[in-house]
Amino acid sequence: MADRDGAFPHPLYEKYVLQPFYRDAEIHYYAPMLAANRAHAVMLYTSGIITLENARAILSALEQVESNGLEGLSYRSGVEDLFFAIERQLIDIAGPAYGGNLQLARSRNDLGYALTRLALRPHLLNSMQKLIALRTALLDFGRAHLETFMPGYTHTQPAQPTTMAHYIAGILSSLERDMTRFHFAYRTNNQSPLGAAAFTGTGFPIDRELSARLLGFDSTMSSTYDSIAASDNLTDAASALTSLAINLSRFTHDMLFWATQESKAIHIDDSFIQISSIMPQKRNPVVLEHLRARTSRMLAYAQGIVVQCHSIPFGDTQDIEDEIFPMLFGGLETSMEILELYAAVIQTIEVNVEHLRERASAGFTTVTELADTLVRQANLSFRQAHSLVSGMVNHALSHHLEPSELNSELLADISNQVLGTRIQVSDELLRRALDPLAFVQARAGLGGAAPTATQAVLDQQSKQLAADDQWLQTALWQLDQANALLSDEVRKILT
Q1: Spatial contact of 87 and 111, defined as CB atoms under 8 Å apart
Q2: Which of 6, 190, 310, 331, CA to CA, is 20 to 30 A from 126?
Q3: Are 172 and 342 in contact (CB under 8 A)?
Q4: CB 194 within 8 A of CB 211
Q5: In this structure, are residues 201 and 106 in contact, taking their beta carbons and an 8 Å threshold?
Q6: 379 three-state secondary structure
Q7: How many CB atoms lie within 10 A of CB 258?
Q8: Cβ–Cβ < 8 Å for 142, 132
């Protein structure tokens, strides 16, 4: 039995819980806590709950606390967290009669959940800003490669010719939806729980809407129980991170294949390449490996958030407070690193255009168009045309023939074997049907691979990108306006 007097805190609890969480709070909670304290003092005075002298004393003391900085708030054993450290210093400055009133009509519960939302907010906006930058880089890249023909893959095998821009437009579409997920997470998060107190509300005549407005929240959470129990603002952020990680990891998988000597599709800039210590010829695309690893890390953080929110009581609990900090903020910070690094890679990448053009028709990737041509020109059903072309490809492969060596006479012979009748088409028609450029240009429908169709998709994505950027600028402006409003209200009281 350890010889202890039972006094709080136990050394191990202090080492593994209080001290690490105090450091996290210094990083994530310090500025939001000062803002929330000021807003609460203004609200208490405006609502007639404290006097002007009391409000002045609290706000002046908060100015002194901020002036002293974090150095004056260093961790002390027995002071449980940053909240109590600031409150202790504030009471020392303002006196217990005035300083002790800041906690009127408030609990650490509603304050703590408000601080998490305030701290999460800039991280979400920063991730969205980095995502917009990556989408912009990809949009420019796609526009530069509208006519860069390449093989498209299904089941990891060459399937049909397409263009690099058509592929990139697909990646941009997925990232556009990820932006929508971040928007949703931000809206869910930017609701104020202040005024819930412990969870039942308070008997004081507070103005919850004023508190929300002063801190830049879009709205106030209507249920005081939900205010201190909700975790969907955390899981919505995790959902956005999860989707982003999956979408980027799939893109990274393709990029790593394209960078191989066997593919030779892209050339990673030398600034992102490391040379082997023993093999001088090696150009290791390590930046893509780091991006792959970090998307896995981001995904792990996101899944950790979800798991930690799972199967806990619907109420105030440490699971979704201090304990979730490393995964929550770690996941968002990792997303910013990934997005910024990815944009730099895209801006410096080179595409082996001629090599990809040659590969676009290799492996008989154009024969779908030959089947379509036979439907149009030879009055065959698609299944008949498919059987005929399949037989022709099998014959070519068994006799080691290239697509350019196929001719109308061979097609007639194969059709006689497969369909029992000789199908006659011109060599020119056959050549055009097997031409990868003609294949791509024929697919000019909505969202198709043709440069004109892809250009239309990129133009639409450009409009959405501009709209997303405008939304982001508006959100940042609204936060600036809230900060200005809070500063004005504080100044009115102090002067």
Answers
A1: no
A2: 310
A3: no
A4: yes
A5: no
A6: coil
A7: 21
A8: no
